[in-house]
Design goal:
The complex is a heterodimer. Chain A is mainly α. In chain A, 69% of the residues lie in helices and 0% in strands. In chain A, α1 runs parallel beside α3 and α2 packs across α3. The relative contact order of chain A is 0.10. Classes of the chains: A mainly alpha, B mainly alpha.
């Protein structure tokens, strides 16, 4: 089989398409075959997964009460101005 | 310290299913304040952070966010079923924030940039691979990257690691940073990010790939020291 996904230097550029399941079936199967045999690329895929996970792992930002109150006030103003459904 | 199990993209609250989406719009139309409060809690912090990228001050960012919520409420009766509240909110927020940014002459709006801003080289240093004419294993790893699976800095995320990642994110070109933030920090799906930013699926993946690859490199530099 020939095409992208045979050399490590190709595979590292296909990692996100691979993780997003966006590769055509031939390329996907070449990448899978490569990953099964190549420790370096298998580690690299894991590192990219972990990178995404670390990005999502920070504590969620709290919503500060003044901002929350301000938005709820805007909601009440909107609800009060609204013509009740007839 | 935050454990890896705290990955926010996995929280069910971030992904509202389609059926509850309609119920949500109906509740807002009825003037259900509790439903509004829950929605505000869920999305406002991300909206403030995103708006803050475009405008000069925290108080202008707060104005942008409030304007977005009011636009949602005023547009409820015309709300189209094909949009979700979340993608609608982020799209309108970006429009309002970019308009403000242009008025403040602060940034070039995203639509004016082509591709990913001229960043189109390899995402991994070519020196990490054997040359194309190498005997045996051309273009394969010259030396295998280190496994991160048991690294304590990543298992229980250190403050230093989170700070490294935050700085690397700040350093990304704008389009990459926006895509990576929406996907990996805010937990939007690929489809949602495409809808919010008006990107094709392929374009979204290119930006995500380049952005994540740079952050991966920053993490590696901390774990292994620069190569």
């Amino acid at each position: 089989m020939t095409g992208p996904g045979q050399d490590c230097q190709d595979v590292v550029e296909l990692v996100t398409d691979y993780l997003e399941d966006a590769l055509d079936p031939d390329t996907r199967s070449r990448v899978r075959g490569h990953l099964a045999e190549c420790d370096g690329c298998e580690v690299y895929v894991d590192q990219m997964r972990r990178t995404a996970a670390v990005l999502g792992a920070g504590d969620p930002l709290p919503l500060e009460p003044p901002m929350r109150d301000r938005l709820l006030t805007a909601f009440r103003d909107w609800a009060a101005d609204r013509t009740p459904p007839s | 310290m935050t454990s890896m199990s705290g990955i926010r993209a996995d929280e069910p609250a971030r992904a509202l299913p389609a059926a509850s989406e309609q119920a949500l719009v109906a509740a807002l139309r009825r003037g259900d304040e509790a439903a509004f409060a829950r929605l505000v809690e869920l999305h406002t912090p991300s909206m403030l952070r995103l708006a803050g990228r475009y405008v000069r001050s925290r108080s202008v960012a707060e104005d942008v966010v409030q304007e977005t919520w009011v636009a949602l409420l005023e547009g409820l009766d015309r709300f189209e079923e094909r949009a979700t509240v979340k993608t609608w909110l982020f799209r309108v927020l970006l429009n309002i924030a970019r308009t403000r940014a242009v008025r403040e002459r602060r940034v070039v709006p995203m639509s004016a940039l082509d591709g990913d801003g001229g960043d189109d080289g390899p995402t991994v240093d070519p020196a990490r691979f054997l040359p194309p004419d190498a005997a045996g294993w051309p273009r394969h790893w010259a030396s295998t990257p280190y496994d991160w699976r048991d690294r304590p800095e990543l298992v229980a995320l250190s403050r230093e690691m989170l700070e490294t990642v935050r700085r690397a994110l700040e350093g990304l070109p704008e389009r990459q940073r926006t895509v990576v933030e929406l996907r990996d920090v805010d937990g939007l799906s690929a489809e949602e990010v495409c809808a919010v930013l008006g990107l094709s699926g392929a374009n979204q993946r290119v930006l995500l790939h380049r952005g994540r690859a740079r952050i991966r490199q920053a993490i590696e530099d901390v774990l292994d020291g620069p190569r």
